[in-house]
Amino acid sequence: MSEQELAPHPFEPCFEFAFTININLSKGRYLRPGNMGAERAAVYVESGTFEGPSIRGTVVPFSGGDWPLVRPNGVIDFDARYLLEADDGTLIYMQNRGYRWSSPEVLARLMRQEPVDHSEYYMRVSPKFDVPAGPHDWLDRHVFVGVAEKTPSSNRIHYFKVL
After folding, report:
1. Comparing 57-61, 62-66, 91-95, 151-155, which segment has the lowest mean pLDDT?
2. What's the mean pLDDT in 45-56?
3. What are phi and psi of 88, to 5 degrees?
4. By the 8 A CB rule, do 79 and 66 touch?
5. What is the pLDDT of residue 152?
6. Alpha-carbon gap, residue 112 to 3, rounded angstroms
7. String of b and e for 41-65 (b: at least 16 CB within 10 Å)?
8. What is the CATH number of domain 15-162?
9. Which terminus of the chain is more exposed, N or C, with fewer CB under 10 A?
10. CA 148, CA 113: separation in Å to the nearest integer?
11. pLDDT in tens, 2-28
12. What is the tens place of the pLDDT at every residue in 125-140?
């Protein structure tokens, strides 16, 4: 390979760790199959916490949830919306869109709530925030990417700000 082929693209993004969120979820309720040939679910946020270098707080219990579409090919299309409360009392609306997919064998283990190493599946999200002016308004001025882990009873998502 030439030096030019090895060089990073001049617009390649850089990332900065923002926070990790741990979300405890209710048992899913499923519509199987919906009229589009896919499953639709409702999974509510029971509780959770988040923490990073510039922010920490809790997930507001039952302030929302996830309404994923499970496609016939096994890809899960997330659409989650809920509230966060920072330690200073600031309420933050968060919407997460993303995807999870894996082999059928790993998907079956995940559906049985078995522990699965994060390297065995793809689970990425992109959040948007609505936050009042103040110390946390950096959340609604940046693009973020989340790399997620599925644990037996929760989701743990590590968010990175795109610089």
Report:
1. 151-155
2. 97
3. -85, 5
4. yes
5. 75
6. 48
7. bebbbbebebeeeebebebbeebbb
8. 2.40.160.20
9. N
10. 15
11. 666 788 899 999 999 999 999 999 988
12. 999 999 999 999 999 9
What's the CA angle centered on 129, arms 123 and 130, to 5 degrees? 160
Contact present, 60 and 73 (Cβ < 8 Å): no
- Specify the pairing of strand 76-86 against strand 69-70: antiparallel
Query: By three-state DSSP, how is residue 89 classified?
Result: coil
Residue 117's identity, in one-letter code, is D
The pTM (predicted TM-score) of the whole model is 0.90
Cα–Cα dist 21/59, whole Å: 8
Could you tell me the residue ranges of all domains in the chain? 15-162
Token pair in block for residue 75: 């890809």
Residues in the chain: 163
3: left (phi over 0), alpha (psi -120 to 50) or beta: alpha
At residue 61, the 3 state secondary structure works out as coil
**Under 8 Å between Cβ of 139 and 131:** yes
